[in-house]
Amino acid sequence: MKIDKPVEIQPTQDAALRAGQPAGTARPAARAGAQGRAGGTADSVSLSAASRGLAADLATDGADVRQDKIAEVREAIREGRFNVKAQVVADKMIAQAAELLETLTVPKR
């Protein structure tokens, strides 16, 4: 299984994504018993195109899930035929970690 490179999502966009609001329409965040930050200002969020795309991907009801493959793996586990090659898993984990580190250490301009 290959995990794509991470997409940068600004932390302020997370609340609107969870609330299911379109980009730029987020309502100010309310806190129980508080009036927001000092000076009476409230937090607000907006979603980037990337975060809206991720939300849309999550909304697909597993259309890309291969049920036949899942059933095959479950049967192999039940029957004791499912073997995990630790060296292959470790190699892939290291490769993905190196790739992630590379994307995180790219110098910003």
Task: Map the helices and strands.
Layout: H1 14-19, H2 49-59, H3 67-79, H4 86-104
Structure, described:
It contains four helices and no strands. The protein is mainly alpha-helical and 109 residues long.
Q: What percentage of residues falls in helices of 4 or more residues?
A: 40-55%
Task: Count the E strands.
Answer: 0
Order of helices and strands: HHHH
What's the helix count? Answer: 4
What structural class is derived from the secondary structure elements?
mainly alpha
The radius of gyration computed from the alpha-carbon positions, rounded to a whole number of angstroms, is 21 Å
Descriptive tags:
109 residues; mainly alpha; flat; 4 helices
Summarize the structure.
With 109 residues, the protein is an all-alpha fold. 45% of the residues lie in helices and 0% in strands.
